[in-house]
Amino acid sequence: MFFGYFAPAETGTFGFRNAGDDDRAGTWLDKDRDGIFESSVAGLGDNRGEQLSWENTGNKTVTLTNGLIYMVGFTHREGGG
């Protein structure tokens, strides 16, 4: 998992997406900024609270606020080949 921080330059809707991979990948965003990536349903999947995507190349949009800093996480697993 790779961690980072995102500070939007303006308040608005932002899109996150996995542009395509040949192995497993996911995107997380700490929307409530409590330092914990929380999922509304156990396991890996799409649209599960702060777990935006898992193995989905579609655009996931979220509304973020200027002046706030959000932790982001990206997962990738090399599956072989």
Give a short summary of the structure:
The chain has no helices and 6 strands.
Principal-axes geometry comes out as: globular
Q: Could you give the order of the helices and strands?
A: EEEEEE
Overall SS class = mainly beta
Low-confidence stretches: none
Overall pLDDT confidence: 90
The fraction of residues in strands falls at 35-45%
Number of helices: 0
The major beta sheet can be summarized as: 4 strands, antiparallel
Task: Give the strand order, joined by hyphens, for the main sheet.
Answer: 1-6-3-4
Count the beta strands. 6
Helix content range: under 10%
Cα end-to-end separation:
20 Å
Characteristics of this structure?
81 residues; mainly beta; four-stranded antiparallel sheet; two-stranded antiparallel ribbon; 6 strands; globular
Write up this protein.
With 81 residues, this protein is mainly beta. 0% of the residues lie in helices and 41% in strands. It contains no helices and six strands. The chain has strands at residues 2-6, 12-16, 24-29, 51-54, 60-64, 70-77. The strands form two sheets. A four-stranded antiparallel β-sheet has the order 1-6-3-4, with no helix packed on it. Strands 2-5 form a two-stranded antiparallel sheet. The model has no long low-confidence stretch (mean pLDDT 90).
Which secondary structure elements does this structure contain, and how are they paired or packed?
Blueprint: E1 2-6, E2 12-16, E3 24-29, E4 51-54, E5 60-64, E6 70-77
Antiparallel strand pairs: 1-6, 2-5, 3-4, 3-6
